[in-house]
Amino acid sequence: MIRRFFKYLFVTLMVLGLLAMAAAGGGLYYLIVINPGPKIEQSYIQSVLGRESPVYYRDGEEKIGVLFQGTHRQYLSYEQIPKDFINALVAAEDDQFFHHFGVDIPGIIRAMIVNIKAGRVVQGGSTLTQQTAKNLFKRESRSFKAKLRELLYAFRLEYHYPKEKILEFYINQFFVSGNGHGLGVAARYYFDKEPDELTLLECAFIAGSVKRPNYYNPFTKKTEAAAERARKRAEARAAYVLGKMRKLGMISELQYGQAMAADIVFKRGKMSYALNTVMDLVKDGLADPAITAALEQNGISNVSTSGIRIITTVDQDLQEKTLYALRRHLSVLDVQLRGYEREQVQKEYTRIDFAGELEPRAGSFLFGTIVSVQASDGEGVLIQVDLGPKKPRGVIDRRGLARVLTAFVRYNGQRWSEVQDGDLALLLDQLKEGDRVFVSVRRVDEGEGTLALELEKYPKLQGAALVLQDGAIRAMAGGMENRYFNRAVKARRLMGSTFKPFLFSAALQLGWNATDLLDNRRNVFVFMDRPYFPRPDHHSPYDFVSMSWAGVNSENVAAVWLLYHLLDHLTEPQIREVAAKLDMAPGPATVARRVTTGSSSASGTGSESGSTAMSWPRRPTNSLSGRWRRIFSLRTGKRSTGSCWIFPMACTMTGIAKR
């Protein structure tokens, strides 16, 4: 009886066990195959591994910056990943990756034995698939439940994606530094290279560092001694990975020997991009409803993770030279208007956080500390400047003081004063050992390992520059730092007399002559249904002056009179067409569309092609020619070539930059 009972019990337990296993298997099949959940879909994974969207200069090759959301990543497809790196990663992290189903049971047992013998955790048993699941789906805690969920996602990845795709996900997601992730960023950060340029040794190092990047990273260490220790750890880790690759037959003895004989040469590349007003303007433009709608029509809901290439109209060379010219001008102008008094300058500099470049080059502006000041009779001046750790020593010579010295003399004297004997000594009195100084790099002396510097003054004054050509922005500097507030487009400043060249250019292109007489008397004009009476800051001896005279002497009343007679009768479509003729419109297609649309309300007759002839106000008779004549009729489709008349500031800045 008892025997029969145990027999039935055994059978029952066996059946229940089989049913439980079947239920568990069915449940796993349902959760892995039938209903894996939305997170396993490639669209979700790609949103996690969002591709950054690079923003380029007009050449489409050099980057201004990148748009990304949260994580900086240069996404690589499996075909773009170097074979050496794939082998190095598999050797370092999971040599059975291409043979297991997401979990390496022998590897887990082996890791348990090693850890028990060591008395601590020295080896992990997780596979690359499990690590990919952890990186993609973010384990919220270290609880048993969280680990089971991670294991479930590993099974899902293995079922729904090939091994190559899982590797692609992992290689684009591992942490590098800061907000940088993936091999593309790692190659640039550690070695200033593209991934396909990496050597076998460099691949071995990066693959070996994915678990503990900061431990092997010399760039994050505060002292040179700590950085050297990190470099030694990096070499040891790379040697371990190379040894495993040789053992697994991934590399030959010759490749192993050559890699082991070489040193890891770290060269920090540009992983992040400085904030700048051009990038801000791009972001503002992409937020425009029309642009947003166009992107959404093409399936792009988030530009920052879409991976699209954005090419601007900005010219790199002109942009750099424009910013350089603006900074130099503001620096000297601040000295000329506010002087260079040591105590005041040092007090101001303690509150300034100016983001200089990691690797100074010609045209860079940065802060340094005076190490010594050596001055002798004649031209012998030498100021040694320490620019910070890992940067070459800088030297300010007599030439490097010339610009600030002239401005310093004019601040203390008259605006036309010139440098005299003894003035240099007065300026040097304001420069002492240990002082913080603001400098620009004039030249890099590669042979001597020094930088030829020019003394600058970080200004309180601000300015902006905008270089336009063919209705497009070629360069833009929004201020001294060229970030945050963009004074080139957002500053609300009265144009003042800088508007006069626009006005005179418009008159010339509309048929006026530089010798035509303008009424310079204090007339009353109607503006917005109110009387307007100009009050100039000086009295002109002439009631009538030529346009040339008005321009040279900046006659306000004559300019107002000219503006009044040019625009008082123009309709909106006519003003738009004037803008097109003066090169102030976005482009021919846009202008033609807008003018054609508004042609029904314009005076004149339209042709079948849609162009409209517009009649303009007559010029007054008080000209030196003494003849009445109509200002010529404009037709859409014709464009002015006088862009330098229309944008004097842009042409001036271009001239400065090219000199």
TrEMBL record:
Reaction catalysed? Preferential cleavage: (Ac)2-L-Lys-D-Ala-|-D-Ala. Also transpeptidation of peptidyl-alanyl moieties that are N-acyl substituents of D-alanine; [GlcNAc-(1->4)-Mur2Ac(oyl-L-Ala-gamma-D-Glu-L-Lys-D-Ala-D-Ala)](n)-di-trans,octa-cis-undecaprenyl diphosphate + beta-D-GlcNAc-(1->4)-Mur2Ac(oyl-L-Ala-gamma-D-Glu-L-Lys-D-Ala-D-Ala)-di-trans,octa-cis-undecaprenyl diphosphate = [GlcNAc-(1->4)-Mur2Ac(oyl-L-Ala-gamma-D-Glu-L-Lys-D-Ala-D-Ala)](n+1)-di-trans,octa-cis-undecaprenyl diphosphate + di-trans,octa-cis-undecaprenyl diphosphate + H(+)
Q: Which UniProt keywords apply?
A: Carboxypeptidase, Cell membrane, Cell shape, Cell wall biogenesis/degradation, Glycosyltransferase, Hydrolase, Membrane, Multifunctional enzyme, Peptidoglycan synthesis, Protease, Transferase
GO-annotated biological processes = cell wall organization; peptidoglycan biosynthetic process; proteolysis; regulation of cell shape
What's this protein's name? Answer: S1 motif domain-containing protein
- Give the pathway annotation: Cell wall biogenesis; peptidoglycan biosynthesis
Q: Name one GO cellular component term.
A: plasma membrane
Cite the S1 motif domain residue spans from the record: 363-456
Where, per UniProt, does this protein localize?
Answer: Cell membrane
User: Which superkingdom does the taxonomy of this entry point to?
Assistant: Bacteria
Q: Which GO terms describe its molecular function?
A: nucleic acid binding; peptidoglycan glycosyltransferase activity; serine-type D-Ala-D-Ala carboxypeptidase activity
Q: Where are the transmembrane segments?
A: none
Skewed-composition ranges (Low complexity): 596-615
> Per the UniProt entry, what species is this protein from, by scientific name?
Desulfolithobacter dissulfuricans
